Amino acid sequence: MIQQFQNRNNNTGTNRNRKLVPEAKQALDQMKFEIAGQLGINLQQGYNGNISAKDAGRIGGNMVKKMIEQQQRQMAGQQ
């Protein structure tokens, strides 16, 4: 049973961070840079391996928070 679970969730050779809506890539990148700027984190185009995991998590967490807020507004009819 455990082996079946591991096989089902092991996407060897695939990118698990793929965009579900590829057309949103530009908007997500823009949001990422805006939030990083608000947090005082200097991001550059391309690879940003120089930032700490803590800062990367702060950026991602704030992106999720903002997307949830936007979706809640949309669901409430308040765009």
Protein described:
This protein is an all-alpha fold and 79 residues long. The chain has one domain (23-79). The chain has three helices and no strands. It has helices at residues 2-9, 25-39, 53-75. The radius of gyration is 16 Å and the shape is globular. The mean pLDDT is 84. Pfam families: SASP. One of its GO terms (molecular function) is double-stranded DNA binding. Residues 1-20 are annotated as: Disordered.
Summarize the structure.
The chain has 79 residues and is mainly alpha-helical.
Q: How many strand units?
A: 0
Q: What is the assembly state of the chains in this entry? A: single chain
What is the radius of gyration computed over CA atoms, rounded to a whole number of angstroms? 16 Å
Structural class of the secondary structure composition? mainly alpha
Considering DSSP H and I runs of 4 or more, what fraction of the residues is helical? Answer: 55-70%
Termini separation: 46 Å
Task: Indicate how many domains the architecture comprises.
Answer: 1
- The best one-word shape is globular
